[in-house]
Design brief:
Layout: E1 13-18, H1 24-34, E2 50-57, H2 70-75, E3 82-89, E4 94-98, E5 101-103, H3 105-115, E6 116-119, H4 130-141, H5 143-174, H6 176-193, H7 197-211, H8 213-227, H9 237-249, H10 256-285, H11 290-310, H12 314-332, H13 334-380, E7 387-399, E8 402-411, E9 419-420, H14 421-424, H15 427-442, E10 448-452, H16 460-474, E11 479-482, H17 486-489, E12 494-501, E13 508-514, H18 517-526, H19 534-546
Parallel strand pairs: 1-11, 1-12, 6-10, 10-11
Antiparallel strand pairs: 2-3, 3-4, 4-5, 7-8, 8-9, 12-13
Helix pairs in contact: 4-13, 4-15, 5-13, 6-12, 7-11, 8-10, 9-10, 11-12, 13-15, 15-16, 18-19
């Protein structure tokens, strides 16, 4: 386990070495965490509450001007350095930080990919994949090609959306007449009724009166007879009030209080007489009209039927009618929308064709140049007779990458026909092909490059050639190589050793920067000998002298 380690990495080529199992993989994983990778099991040492890794970068000019980093840029303070960190708890939960501010793993991936490129020990195997080969060719084509590629990807997605939209419109067009008939029927029902909340209420009251006309007539007649009966001998409320009025009139003017009450009594007598007459007229005017009742019942039934269908109220009926009219208008415009969608698809398809043709032309022009550059690079990597070709093959169907697929063909030895890279190259040859491709396609980039034992499967003079290529890359950018080969380590501008310490109860791993005799001793170990071995020491010194 690594309890605490700090590496100050400079420019040029930095070698990181150590015994198998010393912790080089943990260091590589720490870098992967800074790039937003997932934490692996065992990353937190036993007994610790968390693992923490932090990287300090000098960002290239304009790094945060990238539109994809706009949200992150707004949350970060200004500074000449960029501090990226990741914290992993013992329970597996992680937290990310940029400039001390909380961030997401996605933020680290977006930012980290612009700062550092990590090539794992099996990364060279990706070179056998068609997608990786196409990406390498596109990278070689340059920034203008990348811009066209981005436009094509966006246009290809737009064409897909328009095709789906057109298919949907066509499917809906098949049911258009049926839907229009249904809408016409429902609107005819609503329009025939012409509903309004006021009429609904008025009809309900009228129906109640018509249903109970006899009871209403009886009640009004009884009241009229009580107040002002037709028979002279009948006792009427109006007559009794008249007698009371005459009684108080006899003592009018004696007491003002009684005079006030007499006035009220007179008003009551007048009101009773008027009310009796009006009640008699009301009773006389009431007529039972079965035909009208039937009409009211029929109209209310129409209201109730539509209310049950469309939401339970007159307001709901009216709202449904408005929706039906809007949908009818939309369906009536379906053919216009269909024609417009077809026109949009034709225009987008033409743009996609033009962009795809531009991509194809650029790739076709770049393929022989890339092959020539690769043959030159492979020759410098101890493969002087290697043949390398870049074949473009048309796809059966256009994809997000365009109209063609790419196949890298290689023959490691002279006189042998070139075949697909995945079928012909050994692990060491793939490593050299990948390194050559890195030199050709991304040697001028700004990101730091990290190679984790991509030199596996090679040795001897080939290892020396690989190391020289790594050092050449280090002249233009920062290169870090986790290696087990002394030929590569001897060429490094800086050398760090990862070493286990088992002197305590718990084995700990430390990282030490080597200089002078320390470098010689480590090269001797990598040669499989002790520093006391004169031959190994001489060999190590020769490697350093040749560097």
């Amino acid at each position: 386990m690594i309890e605490c380690a700090q590496l100050r990495l400079g420019s040029g080529l930095t070698a990181i070495t150590g015994e198998t199992g010393a912790g080089k993989t943990v260091l590589a994983h720490a870098l992967d965490l800074l790039l937003g990778g997932r934490p692996r099991a065992g990353i937190v040492r036993p007994g610790a509450s968390e693992a923490y890794v932090e990287g300090v970068f000098r960002p290239p000019p304009g790094l945060l001007d990238d539109p994809e980093l706009a949200d992150l840029r707004e949350r970060l303070p200004d500074g000449d350095e960029l501090v990226v960190a990741r914290r992993v708890g013992a329970e597996g939960r992680t937290r990310a930080f940029v400039q001390g501010r909380s961030a997401s793993a996605a933020d680290l991936r977006e930012l980290g990919s612009r700062l550092l490129v990590f090539y794992g020990q099996h990364e060279h195997r990706r070179l056998t994949l068609g997608a990786a080969q196409l990406a390498a060719l596109d990278s070689f084509c340059g920034s203008e090609h990348a811009d066209v590629d981005a436009e094509f990807v966006a246009c290809h997605a737009r064409v897909g959306r328009l095709r789906r939209q057109l298919d949907d419109l066509r499917a809906r067009a098949g049911a258009r007449e049926r839907d229009l008939d249904l809408l016409a029927f429902e609107l005819a029902e609503i329009d025939a009724l012409g509903p309004s909340a006021g009429e609904r209420e008025q009809l309900a009251g009228e129906r109640e009166r018509l249903r109970r006309v006899d009871a209403l007539r009886a009640a009004a007649g009884t009241c009229a007879e009580t107040l002002a009966p037709d028979a002279a001998e009948a006792i009427a409320v109006a007559g009794l009030l008249a007698e009371a009025e005459r009684a108080v009139a006899a003592v009018a003017g004696v007491d003002p209080a009684l005079d006030t009450l007499a006035g009220r009594l007179s008003a009551l007598a007048i009101e009773a007489d008027d009310a009796g007459a009006e009640l008699r007229a009301y009773a006389t005017g009431l007529e039972g009209d079965p035909q009208r009742l039937g009409q009211v019942e029929e109209r209310l039934e129409a209201y109730e039927r539509l209310e049950r269908k469309h939401g339970g109220s007159v307001e709901a009926i009216l709202a449904h009618g408005e929706r039906c009219r809007a949908e009818r208008e939309r369906l009536e415009q379906a053919e216009v929308l269909l024609e417009r969608a077809q026109a949009d698809l034709v225009a987008a398809g033409a743009e996609e064709d033009a962009l795809a043709a531009t991509l194809s032309a650029t790739r076709a022009a770049a393929a022989p140049r890339l092959a020539e550059r690769m043959r030159t690079e492979l020759a410098e990597l101890a493969m002087p007779g290697a043949a390398f070709e870049v074949a473009l093959e048309p796809r059966e169907q256009r994809g997000v990458a365009g109209d063609e697929r790419v196949e890298f063909l290689m023959a490691p030895n002279a006189g042998v026909p070139a075949t697909a890279l995945r079928d012909t190259a050994s692990g060491g040859e793939l490593s050299r092909a990948m390194l050559a491709l890195m030199s050709v396609t991304s040697g001028g980039g700004t990101q730091a490059l990290v190679f984790d034992e991509v030199d596996a499967g090679i040795g001897g003079q080939t290892a020396r050639a690989v190391g020289e290529r790594l050092r050449a890359l280090g002249r233009a950018r920062q290169v870090i190589c986790i290696t087990h080969l002394p030929q590569i380590a001897a060429l490094a501008d800086a050398h760090f050793r990862i070493e286990k310490d088992g002197s305590g109860d718990l084995v700990r791993t430390g990282v030490e920067e080597l200089e002078g005799a320390g470098v010689v001793a480590e090269l001797c170990r990598m040669l499989g000998a002790d520093v006391a071995d004169a031959g190994a020491r001489r060999h190590a010194e020769e490697l350093l002298a040749a560097a």
